[in-house]
Amino acid sequence: MLGLMQDWPLLIHRIIDHAAKQHGQRQVISRSIEGPMHSISYGEIRQRSMKVAQRLSRDGIRLGDRVATLAWNTWRHLECWYGIAGLGAIYHTVNPRLFEEQIIYIVNHAEDRILFLDLTFVPMIEKIAARIPTVERFIVLTDSAHLPATSLKNAVAYEDWLAECDGDFRWANFDENTAAGLCYTSGTTGNPKGVVYSHRSNVLHAMMLIPKEAFGLSPGDVVMPVVPLFHANSWSLAFSGPMSGSTMVMPGAKLDGASVYDILETQKVSVTAAVPTVWLGLLAYLEQTGKPLSHLKRVFIGGSACPRAMTEKFERNYGVNVIHAWGMTEMSPVGSVCFVKPELGELRDDALYDLKMKQGYAPFMVEMKIANDKGDELPWDGKTFGRLKVKGPAVAKSYFRGEGGQILDEDGWFDTGDVATIDAYGYMQITDRAKDVIKSGGEWISSIDLENLALGHPDVAEAAVIGVAHPKWDERPLLIIVPKPNANPDKDSLLAFMQGKIAKWWMPDDVVFVPDIPHTATGKIQKMELRERFKEYRFPAA
Ligand code: AMP
Description:
By secondary structure, this protein is of the alpha/beta class. The chain folds into three domains: 13-210 and 227-253, ANL, N-terminal domain (Rossmann fold), CATH 3.40.50; 342-433, Luciferase, Domain 3 (Luciferase, domain 3, Roll); 438-533, GMP Synthetase, Chain A, domain 3 (2-Layer Sandwich), CATH 3.30.300.30. Helices cover 27% and strands 23% of the residues. An eight-stranded mixed sheet has the order 2-1-11-10-12-13-14-15, sandwiched between helices. Strands 7-6-5-3-4-8-9 form a seven-stranded mixed sheet, with helices on both faces. Strand 5, helix 5 and strand 6 form a beta-alpha-beta unit. The longest helix is centred in the first third of the chain and has 17 residues, at 42-58. The chain is globular. It starts with 12 loop residues before the first helix and ends in a 9-residue tail after the last helix. 48% of the residues are buried. The structure holds adenosine monophosphate. Adenosine monophosphate is lined by residues 185, 232, 302-305, 324, 326-329, 333, 359, 416-418, 430, 433, 522.
């Protein structure tokens, strides 16, 4: 016997319908690419996204077609997402930080028919336009006054294009499992692979993140996704923000410390989220200027391990609650959030920061386990580490066009490629990417732990640890440091700082100082390139 409840497919446009009905006057405030701040209500966003859908359908876009966006976080980008998905087409977020060849590859692989792009990216796309022939039209996210002369095919200013429609349109109706979004992961080997989100997975994933134990969003919050829409679905905030009725602040193209500070303060942002490198910039700015954070309550940090020194600074110096989160593009992307459960509520100071170093526990709709190489499940004791595997309604089951073949094991688990521990309370801690872990004398050393520790040294701006071949131990850790401006740390002071805080055999065999460390398009340290840079390196004593 089936239940006798209504069939109400979980479709993305229902989110913006809800926001417009229940929170119609609440604002989306953006730093526009043209410069000035811009405000618009959820009611108007809904109207304009319906125009996007109507206008796209006039351009011949149909269910299942891919429409690319190459844009910063602004209200226009948000409207495009809702408009594209509301038509049953697929928004394909292109990460501008990818290499030119990768962008060409993914646009061709996706066969994008239209490309919405910010003014910032016009020169870059003009250069490659001849090599992305599936794109029939380029829509520049601006008005005619700001549209530059361009060689892009059928280029039009978004506002003019939109003005050709009256918005008298009904959202399309289709199955909730219909594809809604496409985001390519920048794998370190091989070509990028497309992760295809459905309406259902996006809606469920947004619902998963609204409660207090995750983002804790409500109509009283002012939420700013600094994490870009092109980085794994902006960690759901483009959906969970409107769904919860929060005011949204979109920071546009300027993500340096001073600009992020300015918008946090002037817009009274209460909740924000981004990768650690963004917060390094903000904290450096705060330290230089001595300014306070007056409104911010919670900051979500993920994408790479959040260094302990960062958590401590935010909490001790600025009274901001840091919540560590983990996930990946294939998981829509959030897989765990480090909310403090009541049984751990007594923890204070160092013990609390120890907990906050962990990536958190899986909310409902994510199942998690650790397993050894044979696939046997390992205990949740906080010590045993193994390959982290996940399941859930917002976890990928395969990549676009079947690239990479079968990605689930026979029991339906997706191997994240991360190595982790899980403790008795369910808190997971990432030890490393499986391929970055340092194998020394048959044991494993976590590069993340060493980097974290080194980052606590007052003269260190950035730290990376890689395994370097060693004649006796197979691999030993090499610590690579970018010093803070005007600081001059030396090897001995760094090693002395780390001494006693980790097992002796984890101590790096050497420390080298470099002016910069390479990052991937999603802000992670590019370990592969570092290994390449240091492939001739030999330990002094080896
Ligand atoms: P991406 O799909 O580009 O977001 O990359 C996902 C990968 O980033 C994960 O598999 C992890 O290796 C890494 N990652 C994400 N969040 C964290 C975190 N909080 N701590 C450590 N690694 C993380």
